[in-house]
């Protein structure tokens, strides 16, 4: 399994494309600049199967409709954020000077965590709330990486001062879900560089002293 990253939009939000040996792919968080996402897919000769969202904040959905319409694929989101895509007050775009961001409703909704299959892709969905109520992380155990959205960063954690954020809940998600994935697990975050569980356990100042 291969993964490709593009850091896009005004706040540098990471969009990931995960591809298998069949040249099929899943698109995670089409954040902005849809033409760059589509150019990557064309360059690699990939066939998109679905779009998966870690959560519904505006900076993770800016190119959602553009990419969805281009490839005609389903969109997956946690059910707790079902109405966030079309509501700037919930997706936080109303709180920023860039203007309101909206997208059409997702087509499929996660309502329980666990093993999932889309086409020939198998992965696990972890409910990791705190940054938002419906934040999820996507674990590709055999390939030893997790797409964490804005839950855990290299040297930091997701902000919790936006609507629906909860600091203690976020720390609990990290400790009970993320840190149990194994020290070698590669963390592909929503912003910034990749990291590992081991690195964050040893060095992340936001995790020291919790519980």
From TrEMBL:
It comes from the Bacteria. Its cofactor is Zn(2+). GO terms for molecular function: hydrolase activity; metal ion binding. The keyword DNA-binding does not apply. Transmembrane segments: none annotated. Coiled coil: none annotated. The keyword Metal-binding applies. Pfam families: Lactamase_B. Keywords: Hydrolase, Metal-binding, Zinc. This is Uncharacterized protein.
């Amino acid at each position: 399994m291969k993964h490709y990253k593009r850091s896009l939009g005004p706040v540098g939000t990471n969009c990931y494309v995960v591809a298998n040996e069949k040249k099929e792919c899943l698109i995670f968080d089409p954040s902005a600049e849809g033409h760059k996402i589509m150019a990557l897919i064309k360059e690699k000769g990939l066939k998109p199967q679905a779009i998966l969202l870690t959560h519904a904040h505006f900076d993770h959905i800016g190119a959602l409709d553009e990419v969805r319409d281009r490839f005609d694929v389903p969109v997956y989101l946690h059910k707790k954020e079902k109405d966030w895509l079309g509501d700037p007050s919930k997706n936080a775009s109303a709180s920023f000077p860039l203007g309101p961001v909206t997208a059409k409703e997702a087509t499929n909704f996660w309502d329980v965590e666990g093993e999932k299959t889309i086409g020939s892709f198998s992965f696990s969905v972890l409910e990791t709330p705190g940054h938002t109520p419906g934040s999820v992380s996507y674990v590709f155990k055999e390939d030893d990486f997790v797409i964490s959205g804005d839950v855990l960063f290299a040297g930091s954690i997701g902000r919790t001062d936006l609507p629906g954020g909860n600091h203690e809940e976020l720390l609990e998600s990290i400790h009970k879900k993320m840190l149990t994935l194994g020290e070698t697990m590669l963390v592909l975050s929503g912003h910034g560089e990749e990291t590992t569980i081991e690195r964050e356990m040893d060095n992340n100042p936001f995790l020291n002293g919790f519980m």
